[in-house]
Every structure is written in structure tokens, then in C-alpha cells.
Design goal:
- With 222 residues, this protein is of the alpha+beta class.
- The protein has one domain: Galactose-binding domain-like (Jelly Rolls).
- It contains 3 helices and 13 strands; from the N terminus they run αβββββββββββαββα.
- The protein has helices at 2-20, 160-163, 200-221; strands at residues 26-31, 42-43, 46-48, 52-53, 61-62, 73-76, 92-98, 103-114, 121-128, 137-144, 151-156, 169-176, 184-196.
- The strands form 2 sheets. Strands 1, 2, 5, 6, 8, 11 and 13 form a 7-stranded antiparallel beta sheet that branches. Strands 3, 4, 7, 9, 10 and 12 form a 6-stranded antiparallel beta sheet that branches.
- A hairpin with an 8-residue loop joins β9 and β10 (137-144).
- α1 packs antiparallel against α3 (200-221).
- The longest helix is centred in the last third of the chain and has 22 residues, at 200-221.
Length: 222
């Protein structure tokens, strides 16, 4: 009887582990701009829309000119201050729409580089659940150092609303110009990491399998 209790207890622990832990984060939405495309190159657990460049960003695009790092996306023509980027349509963004079971969004990453040396550029990332019909939530503002080398931007997504969601999320990238309209930033390897939440039916099968395994172990101990 004691052995049965131990087996059942271990089974319950395993069941609890399955239902309460997340899988290792994977890329759910990814853009590497290979082949001069703005379409997602990776989408798992949902649908990743095209990487969109605002109409206010003139001279922007993939592999936009001679000497530009390729493949990457060039963003040129930001407003002088963040507060006017929205009204001037000076931003880039993309939408990730989770599947029916939902996702746990954990972090966003991308490589960023200025097209110049000698000044530091500020880049801001925010997100919204309504396509920025209302003010979005600012994740952070990144100081991009005065170097033409790519730097990794990585930001954890700690807001509980992003941890288990079935709603479409828009991620937006802005920059503060401030001194020269001819200077741009380059963005590459954009990725949102997270885990796909198992569908109830899949979870039920896993739990049934564990219960069956426990039953077999108890029979063998008799």
C-alpha cells in the first residue's frame, strides 16, 4: 500500500510539472530579411505578419543602397523627437497573432546599427494589443552607440498580459533623429521568443499516459 502511495505521489508531481512549467523558448516570429523580403521567415504557434515600414520613412527598405549591410532593413527619415514619430508615420512594426491555444511571449531581440559614427542614437520598442489605436506600452529605450557594427537588442517581456495570450500583439520600433535626416538605422534578425501553450486535448493525452504508466508500475509491484 505504501508503494502504491509513493507511485501515485510521483505521478502527481510529474503531472504538476507538465501543467505548471513552460517549454524552452523558441522563435515564434522571426525576420532575417533574406532575399529582400519583409515577410516572416519563421512563424510558430501563430501567424506573423509582414514587417511594415511606415510611409514617413523615406528611402527605407531591404538592401536599400550601395554599402548598406545586407540582408537587413534600412529605416531612414525618423522624426526629430519620439512624440512626432506616430503622427508622421515614422516607425516600423509587425503583428504576431497567436493560434487558438495561445502563447507565452518571453522576449524580443534584434540586431541594430546606425549608418554613421560620432553620435549615439536612441531606439525605442513598444507593443500594443489594439494596433496602437490607443497608446502602447513602452518596453525600453536603447542607446545605440556611435558604431556601424551591429549590436544586439534583447528585452524580456515580463508583462503578465504577454505571458499567456491569444490576442494579436503589435511590436513597434522607433528612433529619435534629432540631428540629420540623412542618417538611418539598420535592423536585422528580428525575433520574438516564447512557448506555445499546449491545447487542452494534447495535455489530456499526456496526463492519461502518465496515469497509465503509474497503473502499470503498481501492477508490476504486486
Amino acid at each position: 500500500m505504501k508503494a502504491k502511495a509513493l507511485v501515485l505521489a510521483s505521478t502527481l508531481v510529474a503531472m504538476t510539472a507538465i501543467t505548471s512549467t513552460h517549454a524552452a523558448p523558441i522563435v515564434l516570429a522571426g525576420y532575417d530579411f533574406t532575399g529582400s523580403t519583409l515577410s516572416a521567415t519563421t512563424e510558430v504557434g501563430g501567424t506573423a505578419g509582414d514587417f511594415r515600414i511606415g510611409t514617413g520613412l523615406t528611402g527605407s527598405g531591404t538592401d536599400a543602397g550601395a554599402g548598406d549591410p545586407a540582408p537587413s532593413v534600412k529605416l531612414l527619415g525618423f522624426s526629430s523627437v519620439f512624440s512626432t514619430n506616430i503622427t508622421a508615420d515614422d516607425y516600423a512594426d509587425f503583428v504576431f497573432t497567436p493560434g487558438v491555444s495561445g502563447v507565452d511571449l518571453e522576449r524580443i531581440e534584434f540586431d541594430v546599427a546606425p549608418s554613421f559614427t560620432g553620435n549615439t542614437r536612441q531606439v525605442r520598442v513598444s507593443y500594443s494589443f489594439d494596433g496602437f489605436a490607443t497608446a502602447g506600452t513602452i518596453l525600453s529605450t536603447l542607446d545605440v552607440s556611435a558604431s556601424t557594427a551591429f549590436q544586439l537588442y534583447s528585452q524580456s517581456l515580463t508583462d503578465e498580459s504577454l505571458n499567456t495570450t491569444t490576442s494579436a500583439v503589435t511590436f513597434r520600433i522607433e528612433s529619435e533623429q534629432g540631428y540629420s535626416d540623412a542618417r538611418a538605422i539598420f535592423v536585422d534578425n528580428v525575433a520574438v521568443y516564447g512557448a506555445v501553450i499546449p491545447e487542452p486535448g494534447t495535455l489530456g493525452l499526456m496526463l492519461s499516459a502518465l496515469a497509465g504508466f503509474a497503473f502499470l508500475r503498481m501492477r508490476r509491484r504486486k
